[in-house]
Amino acid sequence: MSASFDHADTLFSAGPGATPVAVAFGDGIGPEIMAASLRVLAAAGANIACEPITIGEAVYRAGETSGIPGSAWETIRRTKVLFKAPITTPQGGGYKSLNVTMRKALGLFANVRPCSAYAPFVPTMHPTMDVVIVRENEEDLYAGIEHRQTDDVVQCLKLITRPGCERIVRYAFEYARANGRRKVTAFTKDNIMKLTDGLFRRVFDEIAPEYPEIETDHWIIDIGAAKLAAQPDLFDVIVTPNLYGDIVSDIAAEVTGSVGLAPSANIGPHGAMFEAIHGSAPTIAGQDVANPSGLLLAGVMMLVHLGQADVATRVHNAWKRTLEDGIVTADLARGRDVVPVGTQAFADAVIARLGQAPRTLSPVAYQAGAPLGVPQAAPRRKQAKALVGIDVFVHDDGIDPDAIAARLQAAAAGPFALTLLTNRGVKVWPQGLPETSLVDHWRARFKAPADTTPTHADVAALLAALAAAGIDFVKTEQLYTFDGVAGYSLGQGE
Ligand code: NAD
Is the distance from the beta carbon of residue 278 to the nearest atom of ligand 1 less than 6 Å? Predict the structure, then answer.
């Protein structure tokens, strides 16, 4: 087949009763690998009706900085299922990542990435690797709330919520149970981020006992990621906050042999999006050399989600058999004595093997059934919240913490007194160390005596007094206790 055939001809509709699916051909290699994937799905008997949408580069270039026109939103929201080829995000300018926009706008809170080895047909150091990463998709540093506060300092807000943690942790356990997985591991950095990652870990520990048949453990993300790369057989399902999940899922996919093989599902209460994890690979676009496997396997995940387990099974087994028969695209032929086939020829080879099972690799057998439900967070009792102080972040070019503290002490008003000054989180007053390097961004912690009950008016009065004293405050954070437990971290060295 020529590389220049019209990819739109590969859109298909299985007829009355078929499930509508929004299809985005994407940018770069997107149109080729989507065409290849759709041809396989059609030949396997997928009962879907493709509805094409245009998103990505062409839309960005036309001046829509989100990359998604209104008509595409309408189709996605109506069909509730999007099969999406990779998109090029223009560098620079005001362009937002369309993927992040889509995941957050549609509430696709769970990103599920199975990472399996296909040795010996795809070379890998870990031939038995079979790990699923369940990444939280909406929160964490990806809330994208960033500010520049001083000449020296910019900040990104890390937001972790209890409902968000409950939903993703429960989803990981439900996924494990539904897919016969034996173990769920949490990755966090709760030894450092005791409140944010600590909450994720605490929720994990609370929910785990509800799944007594599933083994659980927790790893600090740094050593966990190292072990995942070196001994992936230690893991089965991994659940983790957004940023760590982004990184470890690429590591895990690459460790299986190629990032080009890995699919992902983005799941939410109002819809789902299925895509390869790789990008639009513009340098090889239009050459019929790209590997369509990541997107095709995302199509398999979509069919399972749509309740078409038999078709999904047929496609996945034929794909495995194709690999076993030594038929691979250029990315998997590199350094081996194999003549690669093109993107469309690879799809043809999969189609020719529909109905066959792999001989060496283990065959898959997806089970029919409703897609996994989206867990709801448990209702919470309101806790008694008490204001006990305020952190005032100050822009000051001074280099003497004692002098800055003296100015702040002199300006303090109401029930609040200065108790601590930190610079980049490290205590510099009282009794700081001269070795601590300093920037122009100071956190002044004001606290009220335990027998007082400060109010918002007291906070406003404190800020007015600081302003009158010429203190340049750039941000404040109130300090609360919840049922008597401090809702703020201590300064480093406090
Ligand atoms: P990339 O994944 O597109 O490419 C990385 C490397 O892998 C390149 O050498 C490429 O040729 C190769 N590669 C990727 N997919 C392949 C395939 N299917 N077959 C064979 N080789 C393949 O990553 P990048 O170069 O960093 O990004 C290119 C563009 O893709 C950027 O604009 C980026 O923003 C975008 N991107 C989109 C998505 C998405 O839509 N989900 C994800 C990642 C990157």
Answer: yes
